[in-house]
Design goal:
It is a single chain. This protein has helices at residues 16-26, 42-50, 62-74, 101-113, 122-132, 170-175, 178-187, 224-229, 244-251, 264-268, 280-291, 296-308, 311-324, and strands at 6-11, 30-35, 54-58, 77-81, 116-119, 139-141, 158-167, 192-198, 212-215, 230-235, 255-259, 273-275. The chain is an alpha/beta fold. Helix 1 (16-26) links the parallel strand 1 (6-11) and strand 2 (30-35). The longest helix is centred in the last third of the chain and has 14 residues, at 311-324. It is globular and about 65 Å long.
Length: 327
Amino acid sequence: MKDSPNILFISAFRAPFIQEDLDALSRRYRVHPLVGSGVGQLVPIVLGVLRADIVFCWFASVYGAIGVIAARLLGRKSVIVLGGVDIAKDERLGYGIWLSWWRSKLVRYALLKANRVLVSDLSMKKAATRLAEYTGGNITYVPPGFDLDFWKPGGDKDPHILTVAAVRDEGTMLRKGIDVLIESARRLPQFTFSVVGADARFVFDLNPPQNMTFRAVVAREELLPFYRSAKVYCQPSVIEALCYTLREAMLCGCIPVASNVGGMTTAVSGIGLLVPPANVGALVAALLKAMQMPDEVGAKARARMVALYPREKREAELQRIIEGFAS
């Protein structure tokens, strides 16, 4: 392999956390991004692998599987980064790539045959090994990384509860626990609740109370003032692999209340409050307790995130993995 390897970077769509990995790799290596979906992507993936030393795929998707297959046939190295939908199988909510019999076979192949599979939380490794039925010997924990100078407190906290959730359909609304949040707000009329990112059309039938407001999706950087002003951040999801917004809110000094699922347990444990998913009574009690906590708890939440998730740590781990292929 060359001193500066060529990396084919594959992703079906653009997202801030994907772009951050792309930027980090591009600062050190020759990276050729291939972003898009549809059958038209299959040939460019194969052609891209021909010119690459390493195939770096965000998500264990069909595209990721094609990248891994081509890499093995051509003697290239491959990396898969797990996200969430690629380690989910929830029939009730109709969520997860593993619900499809043929996609699940491709994803399983990608997990078993990739040189490295990266997870941002150890709960993701547990889900991957259970679904793919393998030991997970190629799975490596690489923590997410955040810009600590950008995501930081500023100004006074208001006594309200914030949730960020990109809700564009009923299934996502249920998966993010917005129905449970609405009922909790109804039982806590003394507090104000705000949900950023939820399309009000999908919550209209649930008759949200007057102390609850909904705002459309905003750009990631525009979330900063919302995080800075809220005392409590609540993420009542039923399924959640990692939850970047929870960690961003904690970096901004919010007191966290979240369901004890996936990577949210890692973030909140020992600092905020964890509740069983889809349990209105438990969520109401936790929110009431959190609103009575001193602001010092929010400062502790930030300190925990600063210790666990500096952006430099993730970039160093990615570099170690890439350069490890040459040794």
